[in-house]
Automatic annotation (TrEMBL):
The keyword Protein biosynthesis does not apply. Pfam families: DDE_Tnp_4. One of its GO terms (molecular function) is metal ion binding. Keywords: Metal-binding. This is DDE Tnp4 domain-containing protein. It comes from Pocillopora meandrina.
Amino acid sequence: MEGLCMLLKRLAYPCRYSDMIARFGRPVPELCMITNRVMDFIYDAHGHRITQWNDTILNPRLLEQYATVITEKGAALDNCFGFVDGTVRPISKPGDMQRIVYNGHKRVHALKFQSVAIPNGLIANMFGPVEGRRHDAGMLHDSGLLHNLEAYAYSATLLTP
């Protein structure tokens, strides 16, 4: 429980390990090891929930239903089922390799995440984090999202005999 509290405090922006010493009564190296261990545990146990294609909300029948809803709202395309959304999350300035995570557009050191939001407001797929200087188009391609979309894509003309 203490390790989870440490991780949550560390993820609250801005927060350095040295800011946590008074609260948790442990030296910086120990705080770092504990938070990393808890983060690894959480990722190992639940990472699949954000890194794999979610078949329960992204199957061909539901994708067609999402596309129909979006089309009925006046979309120009009849096979659009969701909307790509990216976010830049600021991080503390790293000691090494600062250029990799520096986002010139937002002018902060950051990690980027990209997701697909579907009409019911859920995040259907998430990719990230990647370094802050990376362009969104490259993220979309490298995430495998385009490949997954092509596998599930349908065309209204192909469905009608």
